[in-house]
Design goal:
The complex is a heterodimer. By secondary structure, chain A is mainly beta. Chain A is built from one helix and seven strands. Chain B is 26% helix and 40% strand. In chain B, strands 1, 2, 3, 4, 5 and 6 form a six-stranded mixed β-sheet that branches. In chain B, strand 5 and strand 6 form a beta hairpin. Chain B starts with 5 loop residues before the first helix and ends with a strand. Classes of the chains: A mainly beta, B alpha+beta. At the A-B interface, strand 3 of A face loops of B.
């Protein structure tokens, strides 16, 4: 897929209320971090730093958005419900949107953070963090 | 969700300012010919700017209209009263904006409100001499 604009990113979550529900409409930022442990095994006599490969893999999806309490299917309502239900979910993330053929990342996650912020000159906003729960992050297509 | 268009916002300003005792129904307009028929104070309502920014992946947008409310205080021959009237006009305009910051449901709210005048500055229009007071109002709208 060529370079694309991220303004149509799609994020879906499974919740107790419904499977695969979009929360994209209220989000304005998403950041996917995919990391692997690489233990440092540098020893005396090495000229460059030495690390081991094949360590533990971890991923994290952080999102920001606007608080919207219109109905019960808005991002803020879904995430609040998810947090109250223990946070376990399945994440579907499409950085280029959810049109058929677009890249999709799927993974089991736990919602570990849901914060809301309010200010006199700002729209009500929230941030949320999903962290890997089990298994790997799978790359496929919608 | 609001029903904001420039016309709807304009109509709300006209309604609210006409109800302000300092102007009255006949002395608020969108055109400058109101100055020819005003005996003391009038206000001309026009839009000055607009910006629209995408806010979410769902293409929800944040709009901000900037409206210019030009109050004109007429010189009736008494310089002391003329100056006092500039205080009365701005007080009444600010009070009007404070009492309805959603402009009759057309807007999410008013953002920055800024009033400016240059002391001593006057203009001659429509056969009269006027002290101008410019009030800039940001009107915030959410779309979608």
């Amino acid at each position: 897929m060529p370079k694309f604009h991220a303004r149509n990113a799609s994020i879906y979550v499974d919740s107790a209320a419904a499977a695969s529900t979009s929360i994209s409409a209220d989000l304005n930022s998403a950041e996917l971090s995919y990391t692997m442990d690489a233990p440092d095994v540098t020893g005396f006599g090495d000229n460059t730093r030495q690390r081991l490969h094949g360590g533990l893999i971890e991923w994290e999806l952080s999102v920001d958005g606007f608080v919207n309490h219109t109905g019960s299917t808005t991002a803020a309502c879904i995430l609040m419900g998810l947090m109250n239900a223990g946070g376990s979910t399945l994440i579907y993330f499409g950085p280029a949107g959810s049109i058929s053929g677009s890249p999709k990342y799927t993974g089991c996650a736990v919602l570990t953070e849901f914060s809301q912020s309010y200010g006199t000159e700002d729209a009500a906003a929230f941030s949320a963090t999903f962290q890997s729960r089990s298994g790997s992050l799978t790359a496929s297509a919608w | 969700m609001t029903t904001a268009t420039a016309s709807a916002i304009k109509d709300a300003f006209l309604t609210n300012l006409k109800a302000a005792s300092v102007f009255g129904p006949a002395n608020v307009s969108t055109t400058y010919d109101v100055m020819e028929q005003t005996s003391a104070c009038c206000c001309i309502v026009s839009w000055q700017g607009y910006n629209n920014t995408v806010m979410t992946f769902g293409n929800q947008r944040h709009e901000v209209w900037t409206f210019l409310l030009e109050a004109k205080v007429k010189d009736l021959g008494d310089p002391h009263q003329l100056t006092l009237n500039t205080f009365t006009v701005i007080d009444k305009m600010i009070a009007t904006l404070k009492t309805d910051d959603t402009l009759q449901g057309t807007a999410m709210g008013l953002g920055r409100v800024e009033a400016n005048r240059t002391p001593g500055e006057a203009e001659t229009t429509g056969g009269g001499t006027w002290l101008p007071i410019d009030v800039l109002v940001e009107v915030m709208v959410w779309d979608g």
